[in-house]
Amino acid sequence: MASPVSTLEQQRSSPAVPMRGSKRRRRPRLTGWAYAAPTALFVLIFFVVPVVLVARMSVSDWGLFTGDRGWNAPENYQDVMDDRLLWPAVWFTIKYTVVTTVILLGLALALALLVQESSRWTGILRSSFLVPSALGLASASLLFYALYSPQSSPLGFLGIDSFLGTPSSALWSTVALIVWRFAGFYMLLLLVGLQSISGDVYEAARLDGASRLQTFRHITLPLLKPSLALCAILCVTGSLLAFDQFYILTKGGPDNSTITIVQLVYNMAFYGQNNLGRAAALSILILAALLVVNLLQFRGLRGRED
Amino acid sequence: MRRILSAALAGLLITGLAACGGDGDKGTAAPPAGAGVDGVDDGSELTLWTRAPLELQAKALVEAYNASHKNQVELTIVPNDDYVAKVGAAAGSGDLPDLFAADIVYVPNWTKSGLFFDLTESIGQLSYADKINQGHVQAGTYEGKKYVLPFVLDLSVVFWNKGLYKEAGLDPEKGPTTLDEFKQQALAVQKLGKKDVYGTYFGGNCGGCNVFTWFPMVWASGEEVMDPAGTKSLLNGPAAQKVYSTWRELQGAGAIAPGSKDETGATWVAAFQEGKIGVMPYPATLLPTASKTVDVGVTAIPGVTGGGSTFVGGDGIGISKDSKKTQQSWNFMSWLMSEAAQVEVLAKNNSSVARTDLVDNQYSAKDPRVVTINKAAASPQSKTPVAVNFQQAFNAPGSPWVTLLRNQVYGDAGSLEKDNEAVTGVLGQ
């Protein structure tokens, strides 16, 4: 008696009814397209078309008020590279991204570990940490602007002369806002990761006599890597695209020390230069840089998973 | 499927490009002058955009116009920081409103970009054309054609706190008449040693604030801040240097409130309004607001050895290139310049009038401070600076002007020549 598997293989390879077989093959393919179509259309309208438009703008003499006045490549790209604020903005954005990512992920992990175990206060603590995430970033920035204003600040007891008046204080004051706003959100992501680690693994480690530190280092951290990597990708991308917080708190000052790369795009397009072509050229360069950064991050993540 | 996707992509691209590069209906509208000096009042719906700082005056004007005309104006107030972007997007797609106001320092750039309808002939028909504030009219003139009239004047003057002056042993009825007096009076208030009270305040991280308040100090001294073409900075002259050194000395003496160094302009006027500042240059439009909490004295901004000047700021208004109701829109603009609007709406609401022949009116006579403000606006030393790249050189965050002023007050004062050249570099682009 032939096995069911071999019978199925025979049916699949049988040339007896070729038309019906090809229709069957086509149907799942069409069904797949049907499932993907809404998302594909969404991506097409909201990502592909704008990117093509921006690419087109980036090689045009395109003023904010004057519209498209024709092809001018590579002038916009040259102007971007010659902009006196480009490299300060790039270095500041990278510095801000590194500082924010390290502090934010460290604190979020600490908070997640703190509220991992259920206890009497866990619910209140989790909610308290998460509440700032419910506030819009612009609103939070305005709140901190008032908090940092010497006229209205209740933080006078800290003895800090100026929260935003020097390059260093402006950076750290903004990082404080971002950490306050996002730590709870990343804590939640890490908490989900922590709770997906089976209790049996910890039980086994305990029976083997592992200390708390050893358990954290050899079990928690390795198993939490996918969640940490997700948080890192979100945090790095968000920080490289930082805008609202600096626009509201510092307007790029003092002394142009906190101009981020996206704020430079905004300045080129709307505030000062009124040059959409140049802003589009810088946007394309940022997109390319982000693609490289994210590809490297994904590659690193995949390598570790393998 | 591939074909469908290609067609969809092409369609979207064409639509998108058309939307961004369209010319609207430019050139199809009737010339406003054809309808005479008053324009047309036929019950049309008109749209008007203005920015948030002028909301009070804009609402009062629109309400009064709508109540007395068949035409009806629909007012849209746009947040200050979003205004340029909104106008730019609308200009690109041919969707500008019939009428829109613009910060007067941006007007030269916008007239050059062709955003406004030519009103030369219509303005010429007004019998009082030469009495309209010439600073605004000149800012709205490009290549000999007039595009803009004053919408609301915003003037910079010196405010002082009479209560603090009395405590400091100063004459509460006498403000500073020279830069040195300004410094001495600020220092006298500072010497009171009162908690949270300071001699003066300024926008240390705000280009626009110091254009508005420091340029008049140079003008009052008989000097200029730019060449007549608006392409070369003269902010390294003797009077300008005296302005910087005055503020640097005040900073060194601790007489400037600590928030100044961070001030981006958002809370620039708050400390005075709370009664914590002795004397500072201030927007005249805020006199009614500041007077609610402080006994305010008002004078023109002084120069090195006297004189009095003001920055004639605020917004100019014009008919947009996209308007199809130009003759109806001119009806609003013509009314705006009339005594009914200038005196019965603006002066009545404690705002400055835009016509020199209406400076002395029944409402200003009630408050001598308003007369002082109106006279400062009409002074030959008061100006509206005109430069196509004004925004980029002075007002934008990170502008070379912000670098210059911060170096002069807080940093390396020896960098003046280099910083001034940087301003010229942007102005001349």
Write out the CATH superfamily name of the largest domain in chain B. Periplasmic binding protein-like II
The secondary-structure element order of chain A is: HHEEHHHHHHHHHH
Helix content of chain B: 40-55%
What is the element string of chain B, with H for helices and E for strands?
HEHEHEHHHEEEHHHHHEHEEEEHHHHHH
The CATH class name of the largest domain in chain A reads: Mainly Alpha
For the record, the CATH architecture of the largest domain in chain B stands as 3-Layer(aba) Sandwich
Oligomer status = heterodimer
Q: What is the gyration radius of chain A calculated from CA atoms?
A: 26 Å
CATH topology of the largest domain in chain A: MetI-like fold
- Mean model confidence by pLDDT of chain B: 89
Protein name (chain B): Multiple sugar transport system substrate-binding protein
InterPro entries (chain B): Bact_solute-bd_prot1 (IPR050490), SBP (IPR006059)
Signal peptide (chain B): 1-21
Keywords (chain B): Signal, Sugar transport, Transport
List key phrases describing it.
heterodimer; A: 306 residues; mainly alpha; MetI-like fold; two-stranded antiparallel sheet; 12 helices; 2 strands; 72% helix; disordered N terminus; B: 429 residues; alpha+beta; D-Maltodextrin-Binding Protein, domain 2; 7-stranded mixed β-sheet; 18 helices; 11 strands
